[in-house]
Amino acid sequence: MTHPPAPDREARIVMTGLIALFVITSAWWALAFWPVQDGPVWLERTRYVCFGVTESGLPDAGGWIGLIFGPLGMLIILLIAWWGGVRRLAERARTSRALSATLGALAIGCMVLVIGAGARVQQARALAFIPDADGELPPSTYPRLDRRAPALALQAHDGVTRELAQFRGAPVLVTFAYAHCETICPLVVKHVLTAQYDLAAGGMDVTVLVVTLDPWRDTPSRLPAMAKSWGLPAADAWVLGGSVDDVEGALDAWEVPRVRDMTTGEITHPSLVYIIDRDGRIAYATTGGSAAIVNLVGRL
């Protein structure tokens, strides 16, 4: 005949379960939200398989369900199955400073997880702001970033290394695309080139820099074909690339959200355009069309 666990043993089981649940949840959420662009291939693939991805780099709907309801379900099971231990643990916490401190630390840890995830979501949403239509202009309250632009020095399609710093004194449009993309990339390149043309017609010269998102396939020897395919003008517009390490380092420095499918090589990314002012600072980030870009450049 088996005897039910003693009250103290039940309390220890509940405490161990709470700690284990926190550790597992922390690891699970870190895998979902921590940037993995510089991580090993297996880590990037695991994140993609476990959570899915959206254009912002955040988990898809199924990933969010697992991240939220998985730990919540395990907590409910623990509370129901060991309710006596939960009550005993609460009683002991009233008289034990060490135990109450441990429970408090777990609660603070949970708050840190939620706050960290919230900050990551807010960052992704800020980068994903989209004026819905090409003809729709950003509101007067559109946020100006006004922060220092990271260094950018990569090989251009004409074989010359181009640095962002060399264009100081005039606005620069920096965007990101890759050759095998047949959907968003041709469109975003068209938008920046149209904006460049419209601004030039109004007497404002603007440089366009298109950084490849796919240095594995967009090697330096392929950059001239990309420039021709996208219709880049002979001057003031360049496709930039280089080694995998150099390009990935630049993309990380510019905080470009992206996820590469390790099977197909396709890359999920937003149509991000940075508008650099005459002093070399990032004035605005947008995913809007040419009209929005022209409007924001006009605010510099």
Quick summary:
The protein is an alpha+beta fold and 300 residues long. The chain has helices spanning 7-33, 41-51, 61-81, 83-93, 97-127, 184-201, 223-230, 244-253, 290-297, and strands at 147-148, 153-156, 161-163, 172-177, 207-212, 237-241, 259-260, 267-268, 273-276, 281-286. The protein folds into 2 domains: 7-127, no CATH class; 147-297, Glutaredoxin (3-Layer(aba) Sandwich).
CATH names the topology of the largest domain as: Glutaredoxin
Strand order in the sheet with the most strands: 1-10-9-4-5-6-2-3
Q: How many strands, which pairing sense, and closed or not: the largest β-sheet?
A: 8 strands, mixed
The CATH architecture name of the largest domain reads: 3-Layer(aba) Sandwich
Count of all domains: 2
Question: If helices are DSSP runs of H or I spanning 4 or more residues, what is the number of helices?
Answer: 9
Q: State the helical fraction.
A: 40-55%
Strand content: 5-15%
Low-confidence stretches: 128-134
Instruction: Compute the number of strand runs.
Output: 10
The SS-based structural class is alpha+beta
Description:
This protein is an alpha+beta fold. It has two domains: 7-127, no CATH class; 147-297, Glutaredoxin. The protein is built from nine helices and ten strands. It has helices spanning 7-33, 41-51, 61-81, 83-93, 97-127, 184-201, 223-230, 244-253, 290-297, and strands at 147-148, 153-156, 161-163, 172-177, 207-212, 237-241, 259-260, 267-268, 273-276, 281-286. An eight-stranded mixed sheet has the order 1-10-9-4-5-6-2-3. Strands 7-8 form a two-stranded antiparallel ribbon. Helix 1 (7-33) crosses helix 4, helix 1 (7-33) packs parallel to helix 5 and helix 6 crosses helix 9 (290-297). The radius of gyration is 25 Å and the shape is elongated. The termini are far apart. The model is unreliable at 128-134 (pLDDT under 50).
